[in-house]
Structures
1.
Amino acid sequence: MMADGPSGDRLVEMLAALANPIRLRIVATLAGGRDYVSHLAREIGVSRPLLHMHLQKLEAAGLITGRLELSDDGKAMKYYEVTEFDLHLTAAALAAAAQTLTPPDPPGPARKEP
């Protein structure tokens, strides 16, 4: 893709991570500033295990980062924040990204029936 946009594979990964209402809410909430898991779960209205699953997907896509910190009382707290990203989706940008997609695996040899 053009130098100012992600490659096709990266774009697919980012869009797949954002293609979920809970993950979109997480990114929107974190756009207001970093937050820790328990508070973020309450803010979004989901359980912590469900939140962790979505945070892992967003972190794997490079859209958020997490860091473990100790509170004043010595309690470990995991904070997340949004990484800087800027997506401009236009037909031309998608066409350019498509040119950089990893080609699909070629089909294997046809199996003969016994």
2.
Amino acid sequence: MAPSRILPFPFPIHIGTDICQISRIHAILSGARGPRFIRRVLAKEELVRPRGHVKAILDGDVGRVRDAAVFMAGRFAAKEAAFKAHPWRRLGFHDVVVQRVGFEGREGEGEGSGPPVVRIRGGEAEQMAMVSISHDGDYATAVCMGFDPAAAGGRDGPRGEDGL
């Protein structure tokens, strides 16, 4: 016998995931659209001190495209995962900033030694979210865990009593 009521997930947590093919990003970065793609995906804060291989693409040097493609595929996947983990927000690439946080919770200078996190902005108060980025072969993947503060007040959250 099927249950008469579907219980909602009891926590205001959402998970987003994405996978990105590195060779696809490599093809973009190898062409004339490379610098424009980087500026479209990375926020201003991420462009202040770009990694060497990303800076080379921005400067028109396509000699280090493979390293830049691996990095950019990871960032692209992380931002797409963040979009999916925050479905109640209308986010664009520049609303999600991937950064490092030190192990004691202190913000790093872009290339810190701590794990990556995403800073979510746009529309509401800024918020941090956990993210994990991984690379294997021709793919970069990312998972993001988001928290919905509006749903935290009530067990049923914004979906209503029936969880739908």
3.
Amino acid sequence: ALEVPLEEMGPLSLKATQSIPMNAQCAVFAESEVISLIHSKTDKADIARAVHDGLSSRVVAMVRRVGLDSELVLIGGVAHNPGFVESFKRTVGLDDVRTAAEPDFVGAIGAALAAAE
């Protein structure tokens, strides 16, 4: 709906001038919220930030259930997205959230190490 390539979402969201809450719990409803924001002429950068903030709030809620430490490393492909990383930092309330050097492979490397034992 936003018609922004995935690799441009992160940098675009960093240009946002306001924070807009997204309350959708599923992709279908989130897309409806995005469409509504587009129709109300909301800036694409603000919409991109709203998407990242919505996703990060869900992730942080899960992290808090298992236990939140003062040192976090963000892994997986999403760690390549600077907009999500910034949203995650704001949501979790930490300035220093690290990203792995090869975040895409951390899970696979961990599985291989576990299998080797």
